[in-house]
Structure formats: structure tokens, C-alpha cells
């Protein structure tokens, strides 16, 4: 299951998470975001040891700014409240899984 991450639940769901978190920064008008979205949903279903969240950059500009999102889709992996990996652009599932292993 993917979570919708907002500034209201960010601290609890992301910073205080006891699991690694994969965040997908996206927007409805973004074509590459629509390509990545089903992959993110698959990872969320297949990997219960990882928390998966989506941040709509149009709805949550403060979070997008905090993560210095310049282009979308942007994926970030957060472990113990720290960003350990980021990538920009549509990526195949194998590349996203490699980010989670790092």
C-alpha cells in the first residue's frame, strides 16, 4: 500500500519510520510520473519491509522545496530520518530496487 505523504503526516510516516521509506515526488500533469507510478505501487505491494509514500508536489510545495525537487519524478530513499539516495526521472523497477538496497 502506498501512503499519501503530506506536511501533516511527514514527520510520523517518514522521519519517525522504523522502516526504510521510498518517496515518490510526482504531479498529475507529469507523463514520466505516470510511467513510474505503477512500478512504485508494485514495490509497495511486494516489499512490506519498506514504507512507500507519494508526495504530490502541487499539493505539498513545502515538502518539494525541503527536498530541493527541481524535476519530477524524483525518488528519495530515507533511512533513520536521513536521505540516503535520490534519483530524478523515470527509472525501471530494477534501478529503483537497487536504490533500496544501498
Low-confidence segments: none
How far is the first residue's CA from the last residue's CA?
Answer: 22 Å
Global mean pLDDT: 96
Q: Provide the domain count.
A: 1
Strand order of the largest sheet: 1-3-2-4-5
- Biggest β-sheet: count, sense, barrel? 5 strands, mixed
From the alpha carbons, calculate the radius of gyration and give it in angstroms. 12 Å
| The CATH homologous superfamily | Glutaredoxin
Shape: globular
Number of E-state strands: 5
Strand content: 25-35%
What string gives the helices and strands in order?
Answer: EHEHEHEEH
Q: What fold name stands as the CATH topology?
A: Glutaredoxin
Helix percent band: 25-40%
What does this molecule look like?
By secondary structure, this protein is an alpha/beta fold. It has a single domain, classed as Glutaredoxin. Helix content is 36%, strand content 27%. Strands 1-3-2-4-5 form a five-stranded mixed beta sheet. The model has no long low-confidence stretch (mean pLDDT 96).
Helix and strand layout, with pairings?
Elements: E1 2-4, H1 10-15, E2 21-26, H2 31-46, E3 51-56, H3 61-66, E4 74-79, E5 82-88, H4 93-101
Parallel strand pairs: 1-3, 2-3
Antiparallel strand pairs: 2-4, 4-5
Brief digest:
This protein has about 100 residues and is of the alpha/beta class. The chain contains four helices and five strands.
Amino acid at each position: 500500500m502506498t501512503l499519501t505523504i503530506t506536511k501533516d503526516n511527514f514527520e510520523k510516516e517518514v522521519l519517525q519510520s522504523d522502516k526504510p521509506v521510498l518517496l515518490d515526488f510526482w504531479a498529475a500533469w507529469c507523463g514520466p510520473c505516470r510511467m513510474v507510478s505503477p512500478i512504485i505501487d508494485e514495490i509497495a505491494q511486494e516489499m512490506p519491509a519498506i514504507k512507500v509514500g507519494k508526495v504530490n508536489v502541487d499539493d505539498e510545495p513545502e515538502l518539494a522545496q525541503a527536498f530541493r525537487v527541481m524535476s519530477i519524478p524524483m525518488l528519495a530513499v530515507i533511512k533513520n530520518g536521513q536521505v540516503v539516495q535520490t534519483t530524478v526521472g523515470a527509472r525501471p523497477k530494477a534501478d529503483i530496487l537497487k536504490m533500496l538496497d544501498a
